[in-house]
Amino acid sequence: MSSTTVDTSSLPESPPEAPRGRRTNPWLTLIAVAIGLFMVNLDGSVVAIANPEIGRDLDASTADLQWVTNAYLIAMAALLILGGKLGDRLGRHTVYMVGTVGFTLASVAIGLSGSIEGVIAFRAAQGLFAALLIPNTLGLLRAVFPPRKFGMAVGLWAMVASCSTALGPIVGGLLIEHVTWESVFWINAPIGLFALVFSLLVLPKSKDSTGHHRFDVPGVILLAVGLVALIFGVVKGETWGWSSAGTLGSIAAGLAVLAFFCWYEARQEHPLLPMRLFRNRSLTIGTLVTAINFFVMLGVIFFVMLYLQNVRGFSPVEAGVRTLPFSLATVVAAPLGAALTQRFGPRVTMPAGMVLQAAASLWMLTWDAHSAFAAMWPPFLAIGLGVGMVMSASSDAIVGNAPRRDGGVAGGLQATSLQIGGALGTSVLVSLISGRVGSTLTGELTSAGVPANAVAGFEGAEDAVAMGVSPVSADMPAQLRAAVIEGSGNAFMNGVHSAVVVTAVLCAVGALLAGFGMRRASGPEATEA
Hints:
Layout: H1 26-58, H2 62-90, H3 92-113, H4 116-144, H5 147-178, H6 183-186, H7 188-202, H8 217-240, H9 245-265, H10 281-311, H11 316-322, H12 324-344, H13 346-363, H14 373-399, H15 407-447, H16 452-455, H17 462-466, H18 478-517, H19 524-528
Helix pairs in contact: 1-2, 1-4, 1-5, 1-7, 2-3, 2-4, 2-8, 2-15, 3-4, 3-7, 4-15, 5-11, 5-12, 5-14, 8-9, 8-15, 10-13, 10-14, 10-15, 10-18, 12-13, 12-14, 13-14, 13-18, 14-15, 15-18
């Protein structure tokens, strides 16, 4: 086929297939997609709690456990935009339900696998089916809600997404302590079954006519290869080192392929990801701010759970309970952010949420290895409010600014930026903490009272301390043990302080981007212009 561009963006939108009969209530549609979204996000956050038990039960190495997370992340990130495109073309309700069924079956298979190789393989399958499910949740909402109510629907969607992610540590901790690690995945069976039955009853037939257009297979391949290489380099950066040839080569290759993908897509008549979407400045900035939002959210949650469990010694359930201010704040912030976005636009709500997160990050500079809960809950509250507000506003900026026929693709674009931001957040912040621990551990151990001749014996413990674990043993003298715990905790907090400075700076950048870069008024009309 010729590479000549045929721009059809100015043509009138083909209306979505009209909902028929009883399948016309948009709020029932919201409930249906919220159930599937809750299942996927809950599963994503409980796995971090389950990993230690998986390792002990299946005799898995640290590298194996990394792949339990990375296989899911890479498979999902590579296919999210494709999942949205399939929904736009084949039917969002159909693709959403295929994703729900597949995710549920893969979850059950993980618990039955009996080997770490099986867990990793079925986690990748989970990621594939999550990529079909997640983008079509927003695509379905975009198809059934009128513009004046879409913002509130997105706010409730964001509330479910935030709350389910935050509840993961509590639910996971309870299941692991009182049942087994397999139950963390088996719990998806009843949730998925209910989601499927309810969806069959209420979801509208929603798709957009594409005629006899050729499906963009080269675009699918280019996007998948580029995202896999980029995400792989990001998640391995902490292990290989950010300056290593493997890390730099993987990230550079991913960026090069993605750049070629953009060039190629701009010259296609029916592209997988229409480059015309990025003509809308609000959509583009919303995508960038979404990545920053989840860089901060997932990165901070990661090291906060290390701090609470490994440094402070709380159980998973106790740690989860102490992060309840975050969970409760997201419940309030998502609909509040949606209401504010409807009234003032994301140009106001998004910077406000970013500023709250920047303030929370700076507050964490006051934390030490013995901080009282009174010093913890204010930043938890501020981050929860900020994340919820930004999620509502950025969803409106991305999906609300896309033409209705591209609702699934826009949902996939948002979810892809979310995954990339989250992967960068955990990997980059863990690397920052590790580097700071390595440079300060010796000094902190000495200051805490560890004898100079004993300090050298802890030089190989940087990796453990970077995860909040003190390198002590049961036969260690009590005075030495206390000094090592004190020095290790202080070194870990030095790393946390470096990490939160970075998150504060990124939040400030996101606030400036949103406040000064977005249009005062936005909507799909701007994209179609």
